[in-house]
Amino acid sequence: MIFNQVFSQAPTVTPFGFQSSSNLKVRISPNIISPETWINWPFYYACPWDSYRITDYYAELKHQNDLQINNPNGNGFFNAGYFPTGTTNSYISYLRDSSFIWHYGKFFFDGQSDIGIDSGIVLNTGRVFYFGAINTQPPYDWAGPSMIPGISHKAQYTSTGPNLGSTSFIGDPNNILIPRTVQYPELVALNNGLPIADANIFEFDVVPYGNFISLDYVFASEEWPQNTCDSGADVMAIMISGPGITGQKNIALLPNSNIPVTTHTVYPPNTGCFEQGGSPYYIDNTNCENVIYNGFTKVLRAASIVQPCQTYHIKVMVAEGARHPYEPYGYILKTGNPNEIDTAKSDTFLSWVSGLEFYDSGVFLKMGSLKSMDTVTIQALGGLSQSAAYPYAMKGCFNAKFRLTTTDSLPIPRTYTLQYGGTAISGVDYQALPLTVTVPAFEKSVEIPVNILPQSQGDKLLVVKVKSPYGTCGPAYNEFLSSATLQIVTQYPVGASPQDTTICSGCSVQLLAQTEPGVNYSYSWSPNQTLSNATIANPIASPQTETTYTLTATAYTSWQNCATGTAVAKVKIGGVSVKEAEENSLNLKIFPNPAKENLFVTAESGIILKSYEVIDLNGRKISNGTFHQNHEASINISTLSAGVYTLKITSNKGDCKVKFGKE
Predict the structure, then answer these.
(1) What is the DSSP annotation of 484-499?
(2) Which of 200, 169, 236, 174 minimizes the C-alpha distance to 76?
(3) Can you tell me the distance from the alpha carbon of 623 to that of 662, in angstroms, rounded to the nearest whole number?
(4) What is the radius of gyration, based on Cα positions, of the chain?
(5) Contact criterion met (CB below 8 Å) for 199 and 182
(6) What distance in Å separates the CA atoms of residue 7 and residue 10, rounded to the nearest whole number?
(7) Alpha helices of 387-510 — where are they, by DSSP H?
(8) Is the dihedral of CA 182, 188, 190, 194 positive or negative?
(9) Around Cβ 600, how many Cβ atoms within 10 Å?
(10) Are 398 and 561 spatial neighbours (Cβ–Cβ below 8 Å)?
(11) Among 345-354, 442-451, 567-576, whose mean pLDDT is lowest?
């Protein structure tokens, strides 16, 4: 924010001089959206009750019913507004009621977001909305002779004036020294002991039902790219205090570090004495048409471990600390006389800021990102593919693992307590497993290896449960968050289908080995006399009598082919009868029979299948179709009702009929 207050000569301005097509919208009341609405002094004076209440803002932050927010508050700058003459401490008296705000609002993008956050709350050290002055000649109104575009404008402007070299009047002159020059120790420390200005603070108490608190944000600034390291920095912080935390802790940090987020720690390439490559968290915005800040960070996440059901205090803070040379001086007018300078106040104020220029910075808080609980699941991963689809381990062959997964990654590690059960015994069937596991910072999962011991006997079950670290104060508390079961087997699990089916005499059915995908196997079916090929996964079976086929499948692995399993498929003859063999004079084979979805037809070489008809037992044609002039074809029968049908086939060698069943 620029501190030069009043020109000796007023420039001519146009009230609608800042037309904007920005897709960033800032809503400061139910009826005012910047930049569509521009605010002037009479409107603002007449309608302070139209603004959102502070409770409307903190409600935007909650993710779900996993925490409670109490005692929302803000400093004078956060709630500063214009009120009738004689009102004292107006920004405090209206704090929880209807204060018309200057420096914060609800934001959303009408289209693609430029900052990686679609909507939420924005706090700025300057104006967030489009403000137009009325008087352009002395005596000036309190807004001065300039216009304020807010943050929904091109990056070439500043939120508190038309361009980087202009001035604007911000704040009630009667209270100018209260909100603007307060030195908050937390922010001064982040600025290496140098003074800060225009600190905007939004704070509240929170009672988490879960064991952490997290909040997503973006830090933005007009300081970039002119920011240098030989002066202060614009700073921000998200402070948390409460049980288990010593004093206040800043959780607005760069990933994998204890480095706070400022215009010195995040910076563009080739910026003075900073590293030439620039910060990996900086996004340049100097040519943007939507957001007034010259740059901003990537979306960052602040987080802290907390104790469930305890009260914590959070302060979101942003302030200007970088200072730049600037020639014109500013003045503060006397109370009740807008044409006379208040020398005492001006001297006090200008002794610190005279000849210096400050640029705005802001913080975007993501809507719904304040949370204290996460969805946690655990799965058993086994088989040769070590996947959740095959949750088993085999003694002397292959082990398994459990995987605990959370929905979000946090910049802090999280620890969970596990409880084991089932028929498997620790130290007998498997090596002892940890009682707690930790999801590392910036990760979403952690794996727990399960090693099967050689002395394990028989098939066993190992069950693991994740105990809830959340508090009983929450409305949906459960003792356990998730569970998983691992099978410890003595024989490699394979399957064969159909397990038990009936076909008509002279018909065929396809057998199918059920094994893990992505693994190479050798197959052996027996008896093999009525099979098309006894060493493949899906042979065609054409038995004349009831036959039980036994499958032996061996996986080719690094465990010396220890993964061998068996399964059986039983095929019965009967159910659907067929007339004399001459009706199937083409010796067609159909399978499976009966079928559910698709019926496959094969003919001998030299026979070309042309078309078909499906006829019910009453002689009615149910469906028909053509084939692709081949000796193999398939027919979709999924829409047929269960029953017996006749399939009439037309080929280059003539017609034939075969009966089939629909399951």
Answers:
(1) EEEEEESS---EEE-S
(2) 200
(3) 14
(4) 38
(5) yes
(6) 6
(7) none
(8) positive
(9) 18
(10) no
(11) 345-354
At residue 144's C-alpha, the angle toward residues 139 and 145, to 5°, is 90
State whether the Cα torsion 230-235-241-245 is positive or negative. Answer: negative
Specify which residues 521 forms β-bridges with.
555
More confident residue, 423 or 159: 423
d(CA 89, CA 110): 37
Q: Which residues have C-beta within 8 Å of that of residue 343, sequence separation ≥ 6?
A: none
Apex 379 CA angle, 374 and 380, nearest 5: 160
Residue 489 has which token pair? 């087997």
The dihedral region occupied by 215, where left means phi > 0, alpha psi between -120 and 50, and beta the remainder, is beta
Phi/psi at 58 (5° precision): -70, -25
Q: What is the pLDDT of residue 294?
A: 92
How many Cα neighbours within 13 Å face the side chain of 579?
11
Give CA torsion, residues 506, 510, 511, 517, to 10 deg. Answer: 180
Residue, of 252 and 125, whose pLDDT is higher: 252
Mean pLDDT of 130-146: 45
What whole-number distance in Å separates Cα of residue 182 and Cα of residue 321?
12
φ/ψ (deg, to 5) at 587: 55, 45
Burial of 280 (0-12, 13-18, 19+ CB in 10 A): exposed
Closest by Cα among 47, 39, 48, 60 to 202: 60
> Is residue 167 over pLDDT 90?
no
pTM: 0.72
As a whole number of angstroms, the distance between CA 136 and CA 143 comes to 10
DSSP 117: -
Q: Return the minimum-mean-pLDDT range out of 240-249, 295-304, 491-500, 523-532.
A: 491-500
pLDDT(621) > 60: yes
Q: What band does 273 get if pLDDT is binned at 50, 70 and 90?
A: low
Q: List the Cα angle 58/95/115 in 5-degree steps.
A: 40
**614 closest CA partner among 579, 581, 630, 590:** 590
Q: Could you tell me the pLDDT band of residue 508, with boundaries at 50, 70 and 90?
A: confident
What pLDDT shows up at residue 646?
A: 85
Residue 223 near residue 234 (C-beta atoms within 8 A): yes
